[in-house]
Every structure is written in structure tokens, then in C-alpha cells.
Amino acid sequence: MKKYGFKPLAPNQLRADAAHRFSATLAGPVTLRDRDDEFAHLRYGRVTEKPLLPSLPLYPLDISSLLALSTTHLDQRGVFCLTGSPGNTARLYHPRAIAQYALAHWNAYLLSGQELHRDGFLRQVEWLLTHELCLSDEVGVWPVPYAIPAYHAPVSSASASTQGCVLSVMIRAYQLTGSEVFLQTARRAVGAYQLDILDGGIAAPIGEDGLFFEEVAVYPAAHILSGCLLALLGLYDYVGVTQDGRIELLIERCISTLHLLLNCFDTGYWSRYDLLHEYLAPEFYHTFHATLLEILGHVTGCDHCLKLAARWHRYARHPLCSLRSLLTRRMATWWDNRGKLWLRVHLLGLTTPGNSSSLRRVCVPLPLLPEADHTRNMLNSIAQVMELQWQISYLVQHSCETKRTHAAKQPAPFIHPWRFPGILLYCWHGGWQLLRLVRQGEGYHLLLPQDGIVCAAFAGLVGKLAGVRVVCMDSGSMLWPQSPGQHSRRALVRQPRLPWYERFCRAVGMLLYRPSLRMLAAIAARCCDQFLLANEEVAEIYRTRFKVCPDRIMRLIPLVNAASLTIVEKGAKLRLRVGCGLSPDVILIALAHRPLVEVDLSVALEGIALALRTLPPLIRTYVRVLIAEERLGQGKVMEEIKRRHLEDVCWVWGEARPEEIRQLLTMADIFLSVGTCRADDILMVLEAMAAGCAVVATRTSLSHARLLTEGRGISVLPDNPAEIGIALTDLCKDLQLCRHMGSRAREYVAHHHTIQILQRNLLRASFFAPTLAEARKSVL
């Protein structure tokens, strides 16, 4: 077989190296740093020869070097295993190694025709059949027999490369013998590809419809390239025999995700081993990546894979690239093993926490920002769904008497996030208080900052110093630097005229405020490990402006308040209307304002006026509009209503408190959300959908556009009263359409915004390692 620049070693040297590696494995779990030694002498290439039996396919990866280990690494049954050091009789049976050894025998049999290779292949197949772990009648896995602490993986976790190699073995055993036993086993192996890691499978979702097959099937997902590529080779073998259309779609989803992420693996001089730690791949894995991409490119006809494989082969041959990668890996090894430890222990005074609780300790830095109420609503949902997994505490920079809340020392009045340089001092103050808690031995496993700028910046830096995972939850703060009107709304009451020098200082502060926001946002984007985003516009900013890899961005599914999901009987709804002084037969349009929702009242009221002029007189008499507005803004709303002579139709109702808005949505037939800024409050739209309202919202938000598709609502152009008027006219004329739209919206929220979905998203972003018992229960 043709090898690509590989120098074979003597069998004795291979055997000695394998025995040394396994003795290290018995002493402790395998880590990435051990893999340099583990595979330093094994050379894999691409098979180019023609088989003697053309009816049977060769395995495209040349792993014939494994056959040199067979003299001392076979047990009495002829099954491949790793032995310990001299005097140690323990044996390690790794399913992936056994499957690869079987494939090496398979290729040797097809190229030489010798029966001993056929027998060796079938002996490995028999072991794999015996040691399959069936999670259900449709799913089978072959667990890894050791823990991998670097990726938070316990003993007996699933592996994409193992599933892929075993799948290739079973398909070839079926082609060789024609026995249905092997095909059924292959089908169960494919079942793990179709399951999320949370359910015992190997698939990790990325984006809206993407997925990645994980070499270490735990969360946080590491996205190890070699494991996903080997898993894909197994799927191609399966589809080649079964022609299963569902699996072909699964392959297409994974290939599309690979094309999206491949640039993240390329550093410009070497390839990365994974995307979690962003380690540079050892020399073996770098050439292995190039070989696997070359094979995948030939199988799929993908020019992108072939060009990238050729580029990575050039990296391996270029002496400067090899030297740079070697020095970088050595420096990374020193930094991980010594530099970080010295910095944390001697300079920062950090110690390893002695926490005996089985719960993960989570600290939530809270911002003193306008959306704090919305943030706390989300945190109540998180505390509800993660009660059994997390022990949550909160860090606030103002006085608070809530349980489990660490109130930082009250900052000086000039330290606030509204102006420069206060925002930088506010960030420094929060970071110092968080670091103080970490130094006191709080032992946090996870930091969960609640905005993408201030809290995320100082939490990200502290997390990097302390070695704590940081997951940023951003509902729209990343849009502040792009929204010049955001900070002006924070001063609703005009201050008296200030002296010229103070006005000058404030003008300079406002001039430097937005650059400060962008700087803190860049720090947060670099230091946070994962981003949970409820807003599509925010995700686009992270991807384009800050070059955040798509695998670090996850969609946050807001959990709508349970009170909004309560089905209200028609009689109760009518009684609510009567209690508020409304006729039971009115067509009620609701319009609400919250600090995060920039409602352009002039556009909304103009659209309502156009609809009233278009509606027939009889229907017009039934239309009423209730506007929930904060007390400070009610005067402006009344002026707009009077200017358009809508006093008989539009009323200002309540003070826009959450319970009042929920009551308003319960009574309403139509909810109108008209904004000129993309930083909208998506939770309010979801509450309206959950209450069964027909929603009319602007298209400025990609989140709105996605929610209102398939007849769940009507999206209109921003700053276009005519479209608003047409939408309201259609709904008021056809109440059956209005109710049908509200019913579809309610069903969507009830199905897609549940406690279970929110919990799964949080587990994907934080930590989850399924045990075999949990995986079997979730599948069954």
C-alpha cells in the first residue's frame, strides 16, 4: 500500500512503544498530551491499490501498520488488545482499536487473498458483536473503556470514531457473509448518530439545522475533527449498502456543518485538534486530518475538502510550519501544566475548591442595566429547570436582600455603566468582586454573565484566570454600540442646565462611551467560552464583527411564564374585560412598552388610524386599543393619541408591569409590536403568542420573522403605517382568521418553548456527561 511520506518502524519498536503507552493508561486516563506519544509511530495513509476481490470494497484508510502489533497484542482468542508493562497482566480492550485492527485485516485479505486475514477479521467482529451495549432495540454503542478528564468525560462514554469504525466493520462483515445479524447491528450503530448526546448518542447540534458527530460524546462538545470524519466514513459505507434516504439527509447536514467549521480548524500554518481547547493537533493527527479530508473529498467530490487537504499536507512538509507548530505546542504544554498553576496559586492565591456537593456551583453576575427585570424573569426560569443540577448564586453591584445573592460593595455614584469612564470602572469593580469570591474558595464551575458587554467582559477575564467555564447570556446588549438612541432613553427626566465645563466633560464621555462598549464587547467575545443568544441579530454581530466561530453560538429558548400558557376559558376572558370596563364583544388590540422595546408610537398609532378609516363603520365601533406604558411615558402617549383624535378608541392602561401585561395579553385578540430598533423584547412577543393573540410585528427582527412564519402571525415592514393598517384591517374583518392565527401561535410556543427544551440548551452549553443507565432510560 502506498504511504504518504511515512517511515515504518520495526515491529519490536512498535510493540515496546505500545506496552509503554498502555502502562501509562493504567496509571491515569488518556489526555491530549499523551496522544503525541500514543500515536507517534503509527502511520495512516490513503489506500490506492485495487483489491483482488473487486466485489468487496477496501476500507479507504490505510491502517496496515496495526498488523505489526499483532504478535504480542492478541489474547488467546486472537482479539486485539493492549497489554501492560512487564509483570502487569491487565489488558485493555478498546472497541475502536479492535475495529481498526479488523479493518486492517480486511484490507490485507482483499489485497492478498490469505485466509488468515479473513479469520482475523471475523474474530474481531465476533468480539464487537458480543460487547455491543444496546440502549434500545434501535440504538447500540461501544463505550470507551476509560475516562478523559480533559473533556469532562467519565468511563464508558460514547465515541464518534468508535461508532464509525464499528459501522464500517459490520457493513463489511455483512457483505462478506450475507448474515442479517451484521446488518441489524449496523442499523443499531447508526441509531447513535441520530441521537443527541443528551439521549446517549453522538450528535451535537450546531446552529438551526447543523450537527457534528462528537469523538467525546459529552457536553461541552469538543468538536474533535478526526472523530467526526471517521464517523462520516462509516455512514457512507452504510448508505452504500442500504440506500437509506434518512441517513443521506443526516450526512448532508453534517457535511454542511463541516464546511461551516473547517476554517476554524485552520490556523494558517497547522490544524487544530479540537475547537473546545483549540489545541494544535500533534503531528500524527495533523497528517491524519489531511488524509481523512482527502478521502472525504474523493468520496463526495468536494473541492473544498480536497483543497484544504492539499494545504494541510503542505503545512506538514513545510519546515517553518512544522517548527512553529512544535514550539506552539510545547509552549501550550508548559502553560497548561505549569504557567497557569503558578499564576493561580502564587499570584492570585486561588486554591482547588473542596466542594463535596454533587451540584455544579454556578455564579450569575447580574448587570445594573435597563433589562434587569427581563433578565431576572429568565433567571427564575433557569433556576426552576436546573434546580437538581446547579447550585446558583448571584453577584450584583447594588444592595439586594435576595437569598443566594452576593452583594458586592456598593460602588461610588460615578461608577455606573451609562457613561465613560464610569463603564470601565464599573467593569473593573465587578471583576474585582468576582475574583475576590473565587479567591475565597467559592469553587465555581460555571460563570453565567447576563449581558454581552460589561458582565461578560469581567466574567470572561476572571474565568480565564481561574480556569472556570464562562457562558454568556445576551438578549440584546450587544446591539448597544450600533444603536445611538439607546442611552438617551435612560434619562427620562431632564436635568437642569449644567455648567459649561461639566457639559464639556459629559460630551467627551459620551464621545468615548461607544468605543468603550466596543472594546468590552471584543474582550467578552474573546474570553467567553459559549454564547446563549435569544436574538438573531446579536448572533449575526458575534459571527461577523467579532469572528466568533459558529460552534460557540447557541440559541437560547426563552421559557414563557406558566401563567401565560394557562388556557383561559371564554367566560373568564369576558369577565376580565368587563372588570376593566370593556364590553365583552370588543375587538381588543394590545400595545405594550418595556424599556427594551423601542416602540415607535407615531408609526403604531398612524397604522391604527388607517385601519379605523378603512374598516366598515359597524366593525369600527367594536375596536378598542389598550396601550400599557410606564408612568413616566404616559404623558407622551396621551399627546400622540389626542393629536390623532383617537381618544375614544385608544386608552393608556396600567404601568407596563409584568403582571399587568400578562393580564392585558389574556384579554386581547391582537398584539401589535412595532419597533424601529432591532433590540426588541422577544419574550413579550412569545407571551402574546402563548396567550393566543394574533401578533403583528415588524420585520426588523429576524427572531420575529422566524416566529411568525407558517401562519403564526403577520410581519410588516418597519416605519410603514400602511402595512400595519392593512394587517389590522384583515384581522378585524376576519375574526376566525384572527383566532386561527392565535391558536397556531399558541401551539408553537407550547411545543418549542418548554421547560425540557430550555434545560437541554443549558446542559449543552454547560456540563453533561450521560451515564449508561441515564442514556438507556432516555432512549427507552
TrEMBL record:
Gene3D superfamilies the record matches: Glycogen Phosphorylase B (3.40.50.2000)
InterPro entries: 6-hairpin_glycosidase_sf (IPR008928), C5-epim_C (IPR010598), C5-epimerase (IPR039721)
Gene Ontology biological process: carbohydrate metabolic process; heparan sulfate proteoglycan biosynthetic process
GO molecular function term, any single one: heparosan-N-sulfate-glucuronate 5-epimerase activity
Boundaries of every D-glucuronyl C5-epimerase C-terminal domain copy: 137-313
Family annotation (PANTHER family): D-GLUCURONYL C5-EPIMERASE (PTHR13174)
Protein name stated in the entry: D-glucuronyl C5-epimerase C-terminal domain-containing protein
